[in-house]
Amino acid sequence: MKYMILIYGNRESWSAMDADSFRKLMSAHEALRAELEASGEFVDTNELPIDGAKIVRNKGGVAEVTDGPFVEVKEIVAGYYIVECPSMDRATEIAGKLSEAEFGLVEVRRMTSQPDH
């Protein structure tokens, strides 16, 4: 079963992080990726930068595009992992290894299977 691990952050947490803390965070991500690759559970991961993001709404059949995410949004999706593992328990165990779980929010969702066409 595939699971998506969504990593949330906020501007305050990131701006308060010094260079050494950021290096440690990135090293922890590299170590987790290596662990998941070795176990065969790794599928994908990526950072999702907020700069340049757009919000799209359909208003009466017309796409309305604005810059986003909005400042009033406290938590922003900052990145993700997709893992393939046997259970939600294992996926949450993996999510708990993320440093962001200490100062932010990490969400785990089961991905639905798509039928072959």
UniProtKB/TrEMBL annotation:
Belongs to the YciI family. Signal peptide: none annotated. This is YCII-related domain-containing protein. Residues 1-111 form the YCII-related domain. PANTHER family: BLL7171 PROTEIN (PTHR35174:SF3), BLL7171 PROTEIN-RELATED (PTHR35174).
